[in-house]
Amino acid sequence: MQNPKYMGLICMLVIVVSIANLVASQTIVKTLPGYPGPLPFKLETGYIGVGEDEAVQLFYYFVESEGKPEEDPLIIWLAGGPGCGTLRAFFFEIGPMQIQYGKYMDNVPALQLDPNSWTKVANVIYLDAPTLTGYSYTKTPEAVHSSDTASASQTAEFMRKFVRDHPKFLKNPMYITGISYSGIVIPMITEELYKGNDEGLQPTVNIQKTRKDCNGDYAEADDNNMQCMSDIDEVNKRVGDINIQQILDPDCDPATNLVRGGNPVVAKGNRKTLQANPIRMLIPSSRSTLVTDTTFCRGEYYDYATLWANDENVMKALNVRQGTVKEWLLCNLDMKYNYGKRSMPQYEFNIRSSVVYHQKLTQRNCRALIFSGDHDMMVPHVGTRNWINTLNLTITDSDWEPYYVNGQNGGYKTTYARQNYSLVFATVKGAGHTAPEFKPAECFEMVKRWFAHRPI
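The line above is the sequence of Peptidase S10, serine carboxypeptidase, Alpha/Beta hydrolase fold protein; the predicted structure tokens follow.
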């Protein structure tokens, strides 16, 4: 079985839902601790209730496009995990702000603007989903537990309600996007939104699509197949000292167990409490150099976001509901995917493969972009390309051809189509698992061209 995991998936849909008596929480944030002066972009935060009795309260950050918000695409970005907060995308991947490592302001890590923010060409919703992710919370203990199918359904409901509450974006092309494990749920969300349109749900959603990442079935290989077990052990021995998220980065975690083990990514930012391991101070220039006098691990960068997000004044500025979140964590480890496991205490991995949903989308009037870092050993791009080939699409104008950013090779692309469906698959040269984090300029240029319906 193949499990496509998402790193850049976009599908366009038009939503229109009418539930008049539901009121969402919305706050316009004009300043943030760590940034000097008023924000030069429009930031809204808030909650939208989903599920039975709206027991799940999903928190979001919404940044209007710095270009033409009335025309530019409306995209929702989902973090991986599942259970990882979307603040990681806001600071490290596609958001409007960056952390100035080693600098502090207002007693929190200092912030600066990101020149490669996707908000320059799109209206972006950064969603904390599912359930107990980031600042999201539940009103009942029963609502805490989630799954692939529940997460997809609740996110689709969120999108309809968001557009209902922001009717000026009804005509904007909508893209369902995200990274890593969200590739499982994104095609499901997209198909559910299409089905809702077909059934006449209001408001109608205007949807397009982006996606990355796929994985094989080694995690559930047959224990009785001794040759298979031997081969897997041999693989693990050979990759034990390699960082599988980005093979060129220092290896800071326990020995890599590529398949059939616990979660191979144990970022420091995932610890249970903030106080358990104080962050190391960085000089501002060290962000571009992962190895300084002593090896500095990428996971330690995330500690700055954790410190910022747990500050009382930050929570007040974002209008986080008091008492709903005891501590903001980079990832909820009671949800996060573990190879070989069917469930975690708060999440059930009940979709083995989402390829069937991609097959359904090929029958839709839909355009998709799938991109993958070519230095990602966690979900290698060759696996992504393999499952795309099972869709039996026709290769059109590009067949593994290079594309260029600032005069340099940015990676390779292949374009596919079937009737009204189109798909572009692109690798990002030198990027790891979370491609926009490693190659922000290349990824920004790629999506800027794609959103504008220009060749990558």
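Note on the example: Residues 1-23, 211-219, 258-278, 281-293 have pLDDT under 50 and may be disordered. Residues 244 and 378 are 5 Å apart (CA to CA).
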